[in-house]
Amino acid sequence: MPLFQLSDNNLTAVAQDDFVDERTLQRLIEKNLKVVFNSRFIATEFRTGQVHAGRIDTLALSEDGNPVIIEYKNVPSSELINQSLYYLAWLRDHHGDFEIAVQKALGSGVEVDWSEIRVICLAPSYKKYDLHAVQVMGANIELWTFRRFANGAIYLEEVFQRSVSETTATLEGKDPVMVAAGKKAALTRALGGWTFEQHLESKPQQIADLAIEIQEFMLALDPTIEEAPKKLYIAYRSSQNIACVEVQQKKILVFLKLDPKQHAGPPGIFRDVSDIGHFGTGDLEVTIKTQADFELAKPFVKLAYDKVGG
């Protein structure tokens, strides 16, 4: 899709520009990891030892404490996906090497959550065969494209979306947006170490129903939003977390990626937790006990999605 510059109510097409080389792209992403993927930098060109004989472009730690591998190509190449899967297999068998790298970069007090490893591929485009291959593999891999424009703008888009096979009979009479969201959520839950259903166990029916409604609302915002259940909360994210949901016995806490000093939440049910320890990420806490509370919270959930860059 073309990009247009708006000036005095006139649109001018902005030409695309190329990165000089992959290293330039890599340095840009590494310098802006927090802005783009809300991750902390661990290492660049990380060597995987003499036997494995590889070199991971970028190692990082996500906001949820998960390992992150990022690989880059400045031109379309199937080699990028093969390399990424090669490094994913290595990292699964070398937890200690990664944890040592984390301690060197961030300090000894940082814990690593191995329930998930994010693998991010960045390339200008992918062939249809590559997209199909990754889908068939079912690996936890994210395919992102990038565009650089002559006016200095950079556009990133996640182009690979996992899907779950479902019969035609199951789809009849259902909202296609919610069907797609449900399929994506089902696969996300299947691939993770924790499930959405585990967070509903032993909870009152009213709270469970509210949690399901929050889930449906979050996933319907955008097909690219992923549900990532953790041990103590459920994260909803695109390139980074938008909201973290903590399901309790009498209430649901939703931590939104909003600055409470700039955006006050729904009156009476929000709190600034930027200086208060809590599970998950997000500085604006919203307490939801009833359907009415959630209706008040919806515009702020949408605002958090917009602010993250949805």
UniProtKB/TrEMBL annotation:
Pfam families: DUF5655 (PF18899). GO terms for molecular function: nucleic acid binding. InterPro entries: DUF5655 (IPR043714), tRNA_endonuc-like_dom_sf (IPR011856). It comes from Variovorax boronicumulans. Residues 197-306 form the DUF5655 domain. Transmembrane segments: none annotated. This is Transport protein. The lineage of its organism: Bacteria, Pseudomonadati, Pseudomonadota, Betaproteobacteria, Burkholderiales.
